[in-house]
Amino acid sequence: MNNKRKELIVSAISNGTVIDHIPAENVYQVFKMLKLDKTSHQVYFGTNLESKKYGRKGIIKISDTYFQDEVINKIALVAPTATLIEIRDYEVYSKVSVSIPTSIEGIVKCFNPNCVTNKEEVTTKFEVLTDETGKLKLACHYCEKITNKNNMVFF
Amino acid sequence: MKNRSLVSINDYSKEEIIRILDLAEEFEKQPLQNLLGGRVVASLFFEPSTRTRLSFETAIQQLGGNVIGFASAASTSVSKGESLKDTILMVANYSNLIVMRHPVEGSARYASEVSSVPIINAGDGANQHPTQCLLDLYSIRKTQGTLDNLEVTFVGDLKYGRTVHSLVIALSQFNTKFHLVSPEELKLPSAVKRHIKEAKLSYEQYTDFTDVIPKSDIIYMTRIQRERFPDPLEYEKVKNAYILENAMLDNSKDNVRILHPLPRVNEISTDVDQNPKAYYFQQALNGVFVRQALIATIMGVK
Ligand SMILES: [Zn+2]
After folding, report:
1. Which residues of chain B does A114 touch, with a Cβ-Cβ cutoff of 8 Å?
2. Are residues A124 and A73 in the same domain?
3. CATH classification code of B130-284
4. Chain-wide mean pLDDT for chain B?
């Protein structure tokens, strides 16, 4: 009964990826980051759904699409609590929690306009730090400046 | 350390810093040592800085090396739009070491990754200037006899001053007590304070200058630039609050020395120049010995 009701909220997919436990306020950011507005596959998403663990959560389901580790790391930056579920033939094939990487390459732009990565053809590279309040910050490998969560722009 | 680039002062451990300072002492005693035997060092100043360039080029000459390069990007292929990578690869063909100054932050790190010869960063925008930091450390050690357990006061623009950032980070390895004097708008950034905290050291912040003078072993002065203030009125309010005058040193310790990365404008009154506690002109000369030590080490001839 309970399960059926969930299905009514967001449709099931036969093959593809379900991204669950996205903080409600970040659903749109994940959506944009994965460029889902450009995909030709079916996409369902829901937000402000009730979650026992996280209060209000969001969920995104993408048909016939599976993500590389590099993209999964990307998701961790805006939705560190997210779970990625691979669906094959309506069955859960695998389920992983995203994890915040210690360093990232080529995903985010450096916030510093005078950084070499914004002036020459150089792939960005950051060390991922967390501040006292647990917020994510990126320290640029090149210019050594900090890019805060609020300033993160994704390629 | 041989063949390793120096981009940021954080690239060197405490022991490596001390090794360079010890070697610089040798060069101070005997500056003319033909160790490079005509080897070629490139000096690439994509942005002019006469002071730093002359110091480096003197260091190279005193080691018996030859200098190639340019003093500004204006007359080179860089002004025709050549990428930094291409310039570095071209120059690396002709030289054994590249000294570079560039207005873009992170350019030296990037150059060190594409170059087949080591890079010494002579300043990358507002980011790092590690040889300035080494010469500051050398000057502190020389005047105090030690780098450990000193009370060091930084005055002025602590927010944008890259020499302050590098020196604070380096001194955090030497059990320093930090006194940070600046206007509210120009306090030391938290990214730099993080290093003090990680070393479990203490710091105090002040907006008023006078009280900390008697406690200080070193007073490191910096210039407050008008363009740092969006509101000119704010600048007018603080511009005279951080000027060191000779009379202010009356109650200072005998061993205190005044440092300044130069050029000075008016933040140290000229009546301080004659005081034996003024050290900023000798400080600049120490840069040559420190740079000789660094170049000799990276080239593997010392
Ligand atoms: Zn950067």
Report:
1. 103-105, 125-126
2. no
3. 3.40.50.1370
4. 94
